[in-house]
UniProtKB/TrEMBL annotation:
Residue segments, region Disordered: 1-23
Protein name: Catalase
EC number: 1.11.1.6
Family classification: Belongs to the catalase family.
Any GO CC annotation of this UniProt entry: cytoplasm
A GO molecular-function annotation: catalase activity
SMART domains: Catalase
Amino acid sequence: MSERVPYSTDDAGIPAPSDGFSQSVGPNGPLLLQDHFLIQKMAHFNRERVPERVVHAKGGGAFGEMEITEDVSQYTKADLFQKGKKTPLLLRFSTVAGELGSADSARDPRGFALKFYTEQGNYDLVGNNTPIFFIRDPSKFSDFIHSQKRRADNQLRDNNMQWDFWTLNPESAHQVSFLMTDRGTPRTWRHQHGFGSHTFLWYNANGEKFWVKYHFKTEQGIENLTAGEAKALEAEDPDVHRRDLWNSIKNGDFPSWTVNIQVMPFEDAADYRFNPFDLTKVWPHEDYPEITIGRFTLNRNPENYFAEIEQAAFEPSNLVPGIAMSPDKMLQGRLFSYPDTHRYRIGANYLQLPVNRPKSPVNSYNRDGAMAFYNGGDPVYAPNTAGGPVADPELFKGEGYHVAGEMVRSAYQLHKEDDDFGQPRALWEKVLSDSERANMVDNIVGHASAPEVTDDMKKRVVEYWTNVHPDLGGGVAKGLGVQS
Ligand code: NDP
Protein backbone atom coordinates (compact mmCIF):
# COMPACT_ATOMS: atom_id res chain seq x y z
CA MET A 1 0.00 0.00 0.00
CA SER A 2 1.37 3.45 -0.86
CA GLU A 3 1.98 5.82 2.04
CA ARG A 4 -0.73 8.41 2.67
CA VAL A 5 0.14 12.08 1.92
CA PRO A 6 0.00 14.27 5.06
CA TYR A 7 -3.41 15.23 6.47
CA SER A 8 -4.56 18.70 5.57
CA THR A 9 -5.19 20.78 8.68
CA ASP A 10 -6.44 24.16 9.74
CA ASP A 11 -3.92 26.80 10.85
CA ALA A 12 -3.95 25.41 14.40
CA GLY A 13 -2.76 22.06 13.03
CA ILE A 14 -6.09 20.31 13.62
CA PRO A 15 -6.89 17.74 10.90
CA ALA A 16 -9.38 19.20 8.41
CA PRO A 17 -12.74 17.39 8.26
CA SER A 18 -13.08 18.05 4.52
CA ASP A 19 -11.26 19.86 1.73
CA GLY A 20 -14.45 20.48 -0.21
CA PHE A 21 -17.64 20.32 1.85
CA SER A 22 -18.95 22.92 4.29
CA GLN A 23 -21.07 21.70 7.20
CA SER A 24 -24.76 22.09 6.36
CA VAL A 25 -28.13 21.09 7.86
CA GLY A 26 -28.79 18.16 5.57
CA PRO A 27 -27.22 18.04 2.10
CA ASN A 28 -29.45 20.88 0.84
CA GLY A 29 -29.69 22.88 4.06
CA PRO A 30 -28.10 26.19 5.12
CA LEU A 31 -24.50 26.31 6.42
CA LEU A 32 -23.63 26.32 10.10
CA LEU A 33 -21.77 29.18 11.82
CA GLN A 34 -20.09 26.55 13.97
CA ASP A 35 -18.10 25.34 10.92
CA HIS A 36 -14.82 26.74 12.18
CA PHE A 37 -12.90 25.26 9.25
CA LEU A 38 -14.99 27.14 6.71
CA ILE A 39 -14.99 30.38 8.74
CA GLN A 40 -11.22 30.30 9.17
CA LYS A 41 -10.72 29.59 5.47
CA MET A 42 -12.91 32.50 4.35
CA ALA A 43 -11.66 34.93 7.00
CA HIS A 44 -8.02 34.19 6.25
CA PHE A 45 -8.61 34.60 2.52
CA ASN A 46 -10.02 38.08 3.17
CA ARG A 47 -6.75 38.98 4.85
CA GLU A 48 -4.33 37.51 2.27
CA ARG A 49 -3.03 40.84 1.03
CA VAL A 50 -0.94 43.44 2.76
CA PRO A 51 -0.79 46.89 1.14
CA GLU A 52 1.43 46.77 -1.92
CA ARG A 53 4.57 48.86 -1.88
CA VAL A 54 3.79 52.44 -2.96
CA VAL A 55 6.86 52.23 -5.21
CA HIS A 56 8.63 49.09 -6.48
CA ALA A 57 5.41 47.08 -6.07
CA LYS A 58 6.00 44.58 -8.91
CA GLY A 59 9.08 42.44 -8.49
CA GLY A 60 10.71 39.14 -7.91
CA GLY A 61 13.79 37.87 -6.19
CA ALA A 62 16.11 35.06 -5.25
CA PHE A 63 18.71 34.05 -2.72
CA GLY A 64 22.44 33.61 -3.27
CA GLU A 65 25.90 34.23 -1.95
CA MET A 66 28.62 36.88 -2.25
CA GLU A 67 32.31 36.02 -2.08
CA ILE A 68 34.99 38.66 -1.57
CA THR A 69 38.17 37.90 -3.49
CA GLU A 70 40.32 41.01 -2.81
CA ASP A 71 41.71 42.54 0.36
CA VAL A 72 39.94 45.84 1.06
CA SER A 73 40.61 45.88 4.79
CA GLN A 74 42.52 49.15 4.26
CA TYR A 75 39.14 50.74 3.43
CA THR A 76 36.64 48.94 5.64
CA LYS A 77 36.54 46.58 8.56
CA ALA A 78 33.03 45.42 7.63
CA ASP A 79 32.97 41.70 8.19
CA LEU A 80 31.22 40.93 4.90
CA PHE A 81 33.89 42.68 2.81
CA GLN A 82 36.90 40.81 4.19
CA LYS A 83 38.87 38.70 1.69
CA GLY A 84 37.58 35.13 1.41
CA LYS A 85 34.34 35.91 3.21
CA LYS A 86 31.16 34.33 1.87
CA THR A 87 27.87 35.97 2.85
CA PRO A 88 24.34 34.74 2.08
CA LEU A 89 22.11 37.29 0.43
CA LEU A 90 18.69 38.07 -1.00
CA LEU A 91 18.27 40.19 -4.14
CA ARG A 92 14.90 41.65 -5.10
CA PHE A 93 14.36 43.18 -8.54
CA SER A 94 11.41 45.40 -9.37
CA THR A 95 9.98 48.09 -11.55
CA VAL A 96 9.27 51.41 -9.85
CA ALA A 97 6.01 52.97 -10.94
CA GLY A 98 3.69 50.08 -11.86
CA GLU A 99 1.33 48.28 -9.50
CA LEU A 100 1.57 44.64 -8.39
CA GLY A 101 0.11 43.23 -11.61
CA SER A 102 1.88 45.59 -14.00
CA ALA A 103 4.12 44.50 -16.86
CA ASP A 104 7.78 43.70 -16.22
CA SER A 105 8.96 45.08 -19.55
CA ALA A 106 7.71 48.66 -19.00
CA ARG A 107 10.17 51.53 -19.47
CA ASP A 108 11.21 52.24 -15.89
CA PRO A 109 14.30 52.05 -13.70
CA ARG A 110 14.63 48.62 -12.03
CA GLY A 111 15.07 48.22 -8.29
CA PHE A 112 18.11 46.18 -7.30
CA ALA A 113 17.73 45.63 -3.55
CA LEU A 114 20.28 43.52 -1.72
CA LYS A 115 20.08 42.12 1.79
CA PHE A 116 23.31 40.58 3.09
CA TYR A 117 22.89 38.31 6.12
CA THR A 118 26.25 39.15 7.71
CA GLU A 119 27.69 37.91 10.99
CA GLN A 120 27.18 41.41 12.39
CA GLY A 121 23.54 41.82 11.41
CA ASN A 122 21.79 42.59 8.15
CA TYR A 123 23.42 44.92 5.66
CA ASP A 124 20.97 46.25 3.06
CA LEU A 125 21.99 48.00 -0.14
CA VAL A 126 18.81 49.26 -1.71
CA GLY A 127 19.90 50.29 -5.19
CA ASN A 128 18.72 50.45 -8.78
CA ASN A 129 19.97 49.40 -12.20
CA THR A 130 21.22 52.96 -12.70
CA PRO A 131 23.98 54.73 -10.75
CA ILE A 132 21.91 57.91 -10.34
CA PHE A 133 18.39 59.14 -9.58
CA PHE A 134 15.86 61.73 -10.81
CA ILE A 135 16.15 64.11 -7.85
CA ARG A 136 18.65 65.03 -5.17
CA ASP A 137 16.39 66.08 -2.29
CA PRO A 138 13.87 63.78 -0.58
CA SER A 139 11.38 66.62 -0.18
CA LYS A 140 10.62 66.11 -3.90
CA PHE A 141 10.21 62.34 -3.75
CA SER A 142 6.46 61.99 -3.20
CA ASP A 143 5.77 64.68 -5.83
CA PHE A 144 8.03 62.89 -8.27
CA ILE A 145 6.34 59.54 -7.70
CA HIS A 146 2.85 61.07 -7.94
CA SER A 147 3.82 62.47 -11.34
CA GLN A 148 4.84 59.00 -12.55
CA LYS A 149 1.78 57.22 -11.18
CA ARG A 150 -1.87 58.02 -11.82
CA ARG A 151 -3.96 61.19 -12.12
CA ALA A 152 -6.48 61.89 -9.38
CA ASP A 153 -9.49 62.24 -11.69
CA ASN A 154 -9.36 59.37 -14.20
CA GLN A 155 -6.72 57.17 -12.49
CA LEU A 156 -4.73 57.05 -15.72
CA ARG A 157 -1.01 57.44 -16.10
CA ASP A 158 -0.21 60.63 -17.93
CA ASN A 159 2.96 61.35 -19.90
CA ASN A 160 2.18 65.08 -19.85
CA MET A 161 2.49 65.14 -16.07
CA GLN A 162 5.68 63.07 -16.24
CA TRP A 163 7.30 65.58 -18.60
CA ASP A 164 5.90 68.45 -16.55
CA PHE A 165 7.77 67.21 -13.50
CA TRP A 166 10.96 66.32 -15.37
CA THR A 167 11.22 69.61 -17.27
CA LEU A 168 10.55 71.64 -14.11
CA ASN A 169 13.29 69.68 -12.34
CA PRO A 170 16.31 69.75 -14.66
CA GLU A 171 18.37 67.67 -12.22
CA SER A 172 16.31 64.75 -13.58
CA ALA A 173 18.01 64.97 -17.01
CA HIS A 174 20.75 62.45 -16.23
CA GLN A 175 18.40 59.75 -14.98
CA VAL A 176 15.79 60.42 -17.69
CA SER A 177 18.62 60.04 -20.24
CA PHE A 178 19.38 56.53 -18.91
CA LEU A 179 15.67 55.78 -18.88
CA MET A 180 15.23 56.80 -22.51
CA THR A 181 18.13 54.69 -23.76
CA ASP A 182 17.42 51.04 -24.36
CA ARG A 183 18.76 50.35 -20.83
CA GLY A 184 15.36 51.69 -19.72
CA THR A 185 13.94 48.37 -20.96
CA PRO A 186 16.36 45.59 -19.93
CA ARG A 187 15.84 42.22 -21.62
CA THR A 188 15.81 40.42 -18.25
CA TRP A 189 16.74 41.21 -14.67
CA ARG A 190 19.84 39.09 -15.25
CA HIS A 191 21.11 41.22 -18.15
CA GLN A 192 21.52 44.49 -16.27
CA HIS A 193 23.96 46.04 -13.84
CA GLY A 194 23.08 47.03 -10.29
CA PHE A 195 24.32 50.08 -8.42
CA GLY A 196 24.31 51.12 -4.77
CA SER A 197 23.75 54.59 -6.32
CA HIS A 198 24.35 56.57 -3.12
CA THR A 199 27.76 57.41 -1.74
CA PHE A 200 28.53 55.59 1.51
CA LEU A 201 31.22 56.01 4.15
CA TRP A 202 33.61 53.13 4.76
CA TYR A 203 35.96 53.12 7.76
CA ASN A 204 38.73 50.72 8.60
CA ALA A 205 39.94 49.20 11.87
CA ASN A 206 42.03 52.34 12.54
CA GLY A 207 39.03 54.58 12.08
CA GLU A 208 40.28 55.94 8.71
CA LYS A 209 37.48 57.00 6.37
CA PHE A 210 36.74 56.67 2.65
CA TRP A 211 33.77 57.49 0.46
CA VAL A 212 32.54 54.52 -1.58
CA LYS A 213 30.20 53.77 -4.49
CA TYR A 214 29.08 50.25 -5.45
CA HIS A 215 28.71 48.86 -8.99
CA PHE A 216 27.46 45.32 -9.61
CA LYS A 217 28.34 44.32 -13.17
CA THR A 218 26.30 41.60 -14.82
CA GLU A 219 28.30 38.55 -15.91
CA GLN A 220 25.48 37.67 -18.34
CA GLY A 221 26.28 40.82 -20.37
CA ILE A 222 24.02 43.80 -20.96
CA GLU A 223 21.00 43.01 -23.12
CA ASN A 224 18.07 45.32 -23.72
CA LEU A 225 14.69 45.23 -25.38
CA THR A 226 13.87 47.68 -28.12
CA ALA A 227 10.84 49.85 -27.45
CA GLY A 228 8.81 47.67 -29.82
CA GLU A 229 9.85 44.42 -28.14
CA ALA A 230 9.11 45.85 -24.69
CA LYS A 231 5.67 47.05 -25.74
CA ALA A 232 4.79 43.69 -27.29
CA LEU A 233 5.90 41.82 -24.15
CA GLU A 234 3.65 44.00 -21.98
CA ALA A 235 0.75 42.22 -23.64
CA GLU A 236 2.29 38.81 -24.38
CA ASP A 237 3.90 38.11 -21.02
CA PRO A 238 3.56 40.75 -18.29
CA ASP A 239 5.59 38.50 -15.96
CA VAL A 240 8.45 37.95 -18.39
CA HIS A 241 11.24 38.99 -16.02
CA ARG A 242 9.86 37.13 -13.03
CA ARG A 243 9.51 34.04 -15.22
CA ASP A 244 13.03 34.39 -16.66
CA LEU A 245 14.71 34.63 -13.25
CA TRP A 246 12.71 31.77 -11.81
CA ASN A 247 13.37 29.46 -14.75
CA SER A 248 17.06 30.20 -15.07
CA ILE A 249 17.64 29.43 -11.38
CA LYS A 250 15.39 26.36 -11.55
CA ASN A 251 17.44 25.12 -14.52
CA GLY A 252 20.75 25.63 -12.70
CA ASP A 253 21.74 28.62 -14.83
CA PHE A 254 22.71 30.83 -11.89
CA PRO A 255 23.09 34.53 -12.71
CA SER A 256 26.07 36.38 -11.28
CA TRP A 257 27.47 39.88 -10.92
CA THR A 258 30.94 41.15 -10.06
CA VAL A 259 31.16 43.43 -7.03
CA ASN A 260 33.02 46.63 -7.92
CA ILE A 261 33.70 49.73 -5.88
CA GLN A 262 34.95 53.24 -6.45
CA VAL A 263 36.88 54.63 -3.50
CA MET A 264 37.39 58.34 -2.81
CA PRO A 265 39.74 59.42 -0.02
CA PHE A 266 37.68 61.20 2.65
CA GLU A 267 39.46 64.54 2.21
CA ASP A 268 38.85 64.66 -1.59
CA ALA A 269 35.12 65.27 -1.14
CA ALA A 270 35.37 68.91 -0.10
CA ASP A 271 36.72 70.25 -3.40
CA TYR A 272 36.04 67.44 -5.86
CA ARG A 273 34.85 68.82 -9.21
CA PHE A 274 31.36 67.38 -8.64
CA ASN A 275 29.41 67.21 -5.42
CA PRO A 276 30.17 63.59 -4.52
CA PHE A 277 26.95 63.23 -2.50
CA ASP A 278 24.58 64.38 -5.23
CA LEU A 279 22.52 61.37 -6.33
CA THR A 280 22.07 62.80 -9.83
CA LYS A 281 25.82 62.47 -10.47
CA VAL A 282 28.32 59.67 -11.04
CA TRP A 283 31.99 59.79 -10.19
CA PRO A 284 33.72 59.62 -13.60
CA HIS A 285 35.95 56.57 -13.85
CA GLU A 286 38.98 58.61 -14.87
CA ASP A 287 38.86 60.20 -11.39
CA TYR A 288 37.98 57.08 -9.39
CA PRO A 289 38.38 53.81 -11.31
CA GLU A 290 36.26 50.79 -10.51
CA ILE A 291 37.98 48.06 -8.49
CA THR A 292 36.59 44.52 -8.62
CA ILE A 293 36.54 43.02 -5.14
CA GLY A 294 34.34 39.94 -5.49
CA ARG A 295 31.22 38.52 -7.07
CA PHE A 296 27.83 37.16 -6.14
CA THR A 297 25.57 34.52 -7.57
CA LEU A 298 21.85 33.85 -7.22
CA ASN A 299 21.24 30.14 -6.78
CA ARG A 300 17.96 29.59 -4.92
CA ASN A 301 14.38 30.51 -5.70
CA PRO A 302 12.00 31.36 -2.87
CA GLU A 303 9.68 28.60 -1.65
CA ASN A 304 6.91 31.00 -0.78
CA TYR A 305 6.89 34.22 -2.76
CA PHE A 306 4.68 36.14 -0.35
CA ALA A 307 6.62 35.24 2.78
CA GLU A 308 10.08 35.65 1.32
CA ILE A 309 9.80 38.34 -1.37
CA GLU A 310 6.59 40.31 -0.81
CA GLN A 311 7.39 40.61 2.90
CA ALA A 312 11.13 41.16 2.36
CA ALA A 313 11.89 44.50 3.96
CA PHE A 314 14.99 46.32 2.73
CA GLU A 315 16.19 49.46 4.46
CA PRO A 316 19.26 51.59 3.70
CA SER A 317 19.49 52.21 7.45
CA ASN A 318 20.73 48.64 7.94
CA LEU A 319 24.44 49.49 8.05
CA VAL A 320 26.97 47.27 9.78
CA PRO A 321 30.18 48.35 11.60
CA GLY A 322 32.69 49.52 8.97
CA ILE A 323 29.98 51.15 6.81
CA ALA A 324 28.09 54.38 7.53
CA MET A 325 25.91 56.95 5.83
CA SER A 326 27.10 59.91 3.80
CA PRO A 327 25.45 63.34 3.67
CA ASP A 328 23.66 62.34 0.42
CA LYS A 329 20.27 63.97 1.11
CA MET A 330 18.33 61.24 -0.70
CA LEU A 331 20.04 58.59 1.43
CA GLN A 332 19.30 60.60 4.55
CA GLY A 333 15.61 60.67 3.61
CA ARG A 334 15.52 56.97 2.83
CA LEU A 335 17.06 56.13 6.22
CA PHE A 336 13.72 57.21 7.67
CA SER A 337 11.24 56.30 4.96
CA TYR A 338 12.10 52.62 4.41
CA PRO A 339 11.72 51.33 7.98
CA ASP A 340 8.69 53.59 8.33
CA THR A 341 6.95 52.01 5.35
CA HIS A 342 7.71 48.50 6.63
CA ARG A 343 6.14 49.29 10.00
CA TYR A 344 3.02 50.47 8.19
CA ARG A 345 2.90 47.79 5.52
CA ILE A 346 3.96 44.69 7.44
CA GLY A 347 3.85 45.65 11.11
CA ALA A 348 6.03 46.67 14.01
CA ASN A 349 7.81 43.32 14.16
CA TYR A 350 8.66 42.95 10.45
CA LEU A 351 12.27 42.23 11.39
CA GLN A 352 11.19 39.05 13.16
CA LEU A 353 9.88 37.43 9.97
CA PRO A 354 12.25 34.69 8.80
CA VAL A 355 13.28 36.50 5.58
CA ASN A 356 14.13 39.70 7.46
CA ARG A 357 15.47 38.17 10.63
CA PRO A 358 19.27 38.38 10.86
CA LYS A 359 21.22 35.14 10.89
CA SER A 360 23.40 36.62 13.66
CA PRO A 361 22.13 36.95 17.26
CA VAL A 362 19.60 39.70 18.02
CA ASN A 363 20.10 41.11 21.53
CA SER A 364 17.78 44.10 21.26
CA TYR A 365 15.92 45.72 24.15
CA ASN A 366 12.93 46.47 21.90
CA ARG A 367 9.92 44.54 23.16
CA ASP A 368 6.41 43.41 22.25
CA GLY A 369 4.06 44.84 19.60
CA ALA A 370 1.76 43.01 17.18
CA MET A 371 2.86 39.49 16.23
CA ALA A 372 5.95 39.45 18.47
CA PHE A 373 7.44 35.98 18.59
CA TYR A 374 11.14 36.65 19.01
CA ASN A 375 11.61 39.06 21.84
CA GLY A 376 14.14 37.69 24.28
CA GLY A 377 13.72 37.45 28.03
CA ASP A 378 14.93 39.53 30.92
CA PRO A 379 16.45 42.01 31.44
CA VAL A 380 14.16 44.32 29.47
CA TYR A 381 16.16 47.54 29.95
CA ALA A 382 19.67 48.91 29.66
CA PRO A 383 21.85 49.58 31.50
CA ASN A 384 21.23 46.77 33.96
CA THR A 385 23.07 44.77 36.59
CA ALA A 386 21.46 41.54 35.41
CA GLY A 387 24.16 40.59 32.92
CA GLY A 388 22.18 41.79 29.87
CA PRO A 389 23.80 42.67 26.51
CA VAL A 390 25.98 45.79 26.47
CA ALA A 391 26.75 48.10 23.51
CA ASP A 392 30.31 48.36 22.16
CA PRO A 393 30.89 51.92 20.87
CA GLU A 394 34.41 50.87 19.77
CA LEU A 395 32.83 49.00 16.86
CA PHE A 396 31.69 52.32 15.39
CA LYS A 397 34.93 54.27 15.88
CA GLY A 398 35.35 56.01 12.54
CA GLU A 399 31.75 56.52 11.48
CA GLY A 400 31.59 60.13 12.68
CA TYR A 401 32.94 63.25 11.03
CA HIS A 402 32.83 66.98 11.67
CA VAL A 403 29.83 68.90 10.33
CA ALA A 404 28.90 72.52 11.04
CA GLY A 405 26.77 75.19 9.41
CA GLU A 406 23.67 77.35 9.43
CA MET A 407 20.28 75.63 9.30
CA VAL A 408 19.13 76.26 5.74
CA ARG A 409 16.78 75.03 3.04
CA SER A 410 18.89 75.19 -0.09
CA ALA A 411 20.52 73.21 -2.85
CA TYR A 412 23.92 71.67 -2.27
CA GLN A 413 26.80 74.09 -2.37
CA LEU A 414 28.05 73.98 -5.95
CA HIS A 415 31.31 72.31 -6.83
CA LYS A 416 33.37 73.49 -9.84
CA GLU A 417 31.65 71.40 -12.53
CA ASP A 418 28.25 70.89 -10.98
CA ASP A 419 25.38 71.45 -13.34
CA ASP A 420 22.38 69.41 -14.38
CA PHE A 421 23.33 68.72 -17.98
CA GLY A 422 27.12 68.07 -18.09
CA GLN A 423 27.00 64.40 -17.14
CA PRO A 424 24.07 63.43 -19.38
CA ARG A 425 25.94 65.30 -22.14
CA ALA A 426 29.00 63.10 -21.47
CA LEU A 427 26.74 60.03 -21.77
CA TRP A 428 25.44 61.26 -25.14
CA GLU A 429 28.80 62.46 -26.48
CA LYS A 430 31.26 59.83 -25.35
CA VAL A 431 29.41 56.70 -24.25
CA LEU A 432 26.43 56.05 -26.54
CA SER A 433 26.96 54.56 -30.01
CA ASP A 434 25.22 56.05 -33.05
CA SER A 435 22.49 53.42 -32.95
CA GLU A 436 22.00 53.91 -29.16
CA ARG A 437 21.63 57.67 -29.78
CA ALA A 438 19.09 57.06 -32.54
CA ASN A 439 17.08 54.74 -30.29
CA MET A 440 17.22 57.26 -27.44
CA VAL A 441 15.73 59.94 -29.70
CA ASP A 442 13.03 57.52 -30.87
CA ASN A 443 12.22 56.47 -27.32
CA ILE A 444 11.85 60.09 -26.18
CA VAL A 445 9.74 60.96 -29.21
CA GLY A 446 7.54 57.91 -28.64
CA HIS A 447 7.02 58.82 -24.98
CA ALA A 448 6.34 62.52 -25.62
CA SER A 449 3.99 61.74 -28.51
CA ALA A 450 1.29 60.32 -26.24
CA PRO A 451 -2.02 62.04 -27.02
CA GLU A 452 -2.19 63.75 -23.63
CA VAL A 453 1.14 65.59 -24.14
CA THR A 454 0.30 69.19 -25.08
CA ASP A 455 2.05 71.26 -27.75
CA ASP A 456 3.42 73.58 -25.09
CA MET A 457 4.84 70.60 -23.22
CA LYS A 458 6.48 69.29 -26.40
CA LYS A 459 8.35 72.60 -26.70
CA ARG A 460 9.57 72.23 -23.12
CA VAL A 461 10.66 68.66 -23.87
CA VAL A 462 12.75 69.90 -26.82
CA GLU A 463 14.29 72.65 -24.70
CA TYR A 464 15.17 70.14 -21.95
CA TRP A 465 16.98 67.83 -24.37
CA THR A 466 18.65 70.71 -26.22
CA ASN A 467 20.24 71.62 -22.90
CA VAL A 468 21.74 68.13 -22.80
CA HIS A 469 22.97 68.34 -26.41
CA PRO A 470 21.81 70.35 -29.45
CA ASP A 471 21.87 67.23 -31.64
CA LEU A 472 19.66 65.40 -29.18
CA GLY A 473 17.30 68.37 -28.90
CA GLY A 474 17.27 68.67 -32.71
CA GLY A 475 16.40 64.98 -33.15
CA VAL A 476 13.59 65.21 -30.61
CA ALA A 477 12.24 68.42 -32.19
CA LYS A 478 12.17 66.76 -35.59
CA GLY A 479 10.42 63.68 -34.25
CA LEU A 480 7.82 65.72 -32.37
CA GLY A 481 7.31 68.18 -35.20
CA VAL A 482 8.37 71.13 -33.04
CA GLN A 483 10.18 74.12 -34.62
CA SER A 484 13.56 74.32 -32.83
P1 NDP B 1 33.53 56.00 -18.86
O1 NDP B 1 33.62 55.93 -20.35
O2 NDP B 1 34.71 55.67 -18.03
O3 NDP B 1 32.31 55.12 -18.33
C1 NDP B 1 31.12 55.09 -19.01
C2 NDP B 1 30.21 54.10 -18.30
O4 NDP B 1 29.00 54.02 -19.00
C3 NDP B 1 30.76 52.72 -18.21
O5 NDP B 1 30.58 52.32 -16.86
C4 NDP B 1 29.90 51.86 -19.13
O6 NDP B 1 29.93 50.59 -18.57
C5 NDP B 1 28.59 52.64 -19.08
N1 NDP B 1 27.80 52.53 -20.30
C6 NDP B 1 28.15 52.08 -21.51
N2 NDP B 1 27.13 52.14 -22.37
C7 NDP B 1 26.10 52.67 -21.66
C8 NDP B 1 24.77 52.97 -21.99
N3 NDP B 1 24.29 52.73 -23.20
N4 NDP B 1 23.98 53.51 -21.03
C9 NDP B 1 24.45 53.73 -19.80
N5 NDP B 1 25.73 53.45 -19.43
C10 NDP B 1 26.52 52.94 -20.35
O7 NDP B 1 33.03 57.49 -18.59
P2 NDP B 1 32.74 58.29 -17.25
O8 NDP B 1 32.99 57.52 -16.02
O9 NDP B 1 33.45 59.59 -17.42
O10 NDP B 1 31.18 58.56 -17.39
C11 NDP B 1 30.66 59.17 -18.56
C12 NDP B 1 29.17 59.02 -18.52
O11 NDP B 1 28.88 57.64 -18.54
C13 NDP B 1 28.55 59.55 -17.22
O12 NDP B 1 28.26 60.91 -17.30
C14 NDP B 1 27.35 58.69 -17.08
O13 NDP B 1 26.28 59.26 -17.82
C15 NDP B 1 27.74 57.36 -17.74
N6 NDP B 1 28.06 56.32 -16.74
C16 NDP B 1 29.06 56.53 -15.83
C17 NDP B 1 29.23 55.64 -14.79
C18 NDP B 1 30.22 55.94 -13.72
O14 NDP B 1 30.02 55.43 -12.61
N7 NDP B 1 31.27 56.71 -13.99
C19 NDP B 1 28.42 54.41 -14.69
C20 NDP B 1 27.47 54.25 -15.77
C21 NDP B 1 27.31 55.19 -16.72
P3 NDP B 1 29.07 49.36 -19.07
O15 NDP B 1 29.08 49.33 -20.57
O16 NDP B 1 29.66 48.15 -18.43
O17 NDP B 1 27.74 49.64 -18.50
